[in-house]
Specification:
single chain; alpha/beta; TIM Barrel; DNA polymerase, domain 1; 2 domains; 7-stranded mixed sheet; binds adenosine monophosphate; binds manganese (II) ion
Length: 294
C-alpha cells in the first residue's frame, strides 16, 4: 500500500488540475491520495469522481493556514465537513486575506525595480479561490524575471524579502477545534519545516494534543532531515498520536516533491480512519465525507 496524504492541485497553488493530479497518482502507483489544497475544499467533488473512475483511493482533506506567535504553521484536516459555518467563514477570511494583498506585493516589487503587474499575477491563477505568493512567483517566471518558483521566493517572496506581505491566519488551537467540530482529523503539517520549527516544539505539540485533541503530526516530509524525522517519530510515539508521511506535491511548482516521495504507513492510515470515525460520531451536526477506498 502506498499512501500519500498531502497534495495540491490548481485549486490552490499546485499546477495540475484535480483530474490530472489523480491521473498522476494512478500512474505513480499510489493506492491512496489525499487532496489537501490550501484553505479550500473546492477540488473534492472532482477529485472523488476522478478517483472512482481510476480506482485510486481518495481522502478529501484541506491544509489550513495557521499562525502561532507570528510564525506560519499549517494544519491538515481530513474527512471534515467544510460547510460548517464557523470553519467556512474562517477559511473565507484566510483566502480573501491572501488574495487582497496581491496589489501591495506587486507595488513593493515595483518599488525595488521589478517589472510586474497585478494582471500578470491573475493570469497565473486559474481555477483557485485564493491567489498567493506562488502565483506571483509564476508570473515572475512567465515574464522572465526568474527561472523558477524557488528563485522567486529566495530573491523576492520568502519571509523577510521585499515582496513578502503577511496575511491573516488562524491560531492552531482554534483551527484544531474547527476541524474537530466539523467531524475531521487534525494533523500538523511539516511541524519542523521552513518556519514552523521555531514554534512547534515537543511541548507545543503536546499541548495541542492535550488541550485541543490534535490527532497526529506529519513526520516524513521533504522539509525534514533524517534526524528530524527520527525525533518527530519519537515525539508522536510518546504522545500516542499518528505519524504521517507525504509528498506535499505541487505539480511542477515544487521540485523534489514528486507524488509518493514519502508515504504513510498503512497501520498509521488505519489509525487515522479510526480517529475519523470517532471524531465524526462526536460531531453529529457535521456532514462528514467518506474516504473512497476501492
Ligand atoms: P502564501 O499563502 O500566499 O503566503 O503562499 C504560501 C505558499 O508558498 C506555501 O503554501 C508554499 O507552497 C509556498 N512557499 C512558501 N515559502 C516558499 C519557499 N521558500 N519556496 C517555495 N515555495 C514556498
Ligand atoms: Mn503551497
Ligand atoms: Mn504547508
Ligand atoms: Mn502543502
Amino acid at each position: 500500500m502506498r499512501i500519500d496524504l498531502h497534495t495540491h492541485s490548481n485549486r490552490s497553488d499546485g499546477t495540475d488540475p484535480v483530474d490530472v493530479l489523480i491521473g498522476h497518482a494512478q500512474q505513480s502507483g499510489l493506492d491512496v491520495i489525499a487532496l489537501t489544497d490550501h484553505d479550500t475544499a473546492d477540488g473534492w467533488a472532482e477529485g472523488r469522481i476522478a478517483a472512482e473512475r481510476l480506482r485510486v483511493g481518495f481522502v478529501p482533506g484541506i491544509e489550513i493556514s495557521c499562525k502561532l506567535n507570528g510564525i506560519s504553521v499549517h494544519l491538515l484536516g481530513y474527512l471534515l465537513d467544510p460547510s460548517r459555518p464557523e470553519l467556512a467563514e474562517e477559511l473565507r477570511v484566510v483566502r480573501d486575506g491572501r488574495t487582497d494583498r496581491i496589489p501591495s506585493i506587486v507595488a513593493r516589487l515595483n518599488s525595488i525595480g521589478v517589472q510586474l503587474t497585478v494582471d500578470e499575477v491573475l493570469a497565473q491563477a486559474t481555477g483557485t479561490p485564493s491567489i498567493g505568493r506562488p502565483h506571483v512567483a509564476d508570473a515572475l517566471v512567465a515574464n522572465g524575471t526568474v527561472a523558477n518558483r524557488s528563485e522567486a521566493f529566495d530573491r523576492f517572496l520568502a519571509d523577510g524579502r521585499a515582496g513578502h506581505v503577511p496575511h491573516y491566519a488562524i491560531e492552531p488551537g482554534r483551527a484544531i477545534d474547527l476541524v474537530r467540530a466539523a467531524g475531521g482529523v487534525p494533523v500538523i503539517a511539516h511541524p519542523w519545516g521552513r518556519s514552523s520549527y521555531k514554534v512547534m516544539t515537543a511541548d507545543t505539540v503536546g499541548r495541542l494534543v492535550e488541550d485541543y485533541g490534535l490527532a497526529g503530526i506529519e513526520v516524513d516530509h521533504q522539509d525534514h532531515s533524517p534526524e528530524s524525522r527520527t525525533a518527530l517519530r519519537a515525539i508522536a510515539q510518546d504522545l500516542g498520536i499518528i505519524s504521517t508521511g507525504s509528498s506535499d506535491h505541487h505539480g511542477a511548482g515544487k521540485i523534489n516533491h514528486d507524488l509518493g516521495v514519502n508515504s504513510t504507513e498503512p497501520e498509521q492510515f488505519e489509525r487515522l480512519l479510526d480517529v475519523a470515525k470517532a471524531n465524526a460520531a462526536a460531531a453529529p451536526d457535521a456532514r462528514v465525507p467518506e474516504a473512497y477506498l476501492p
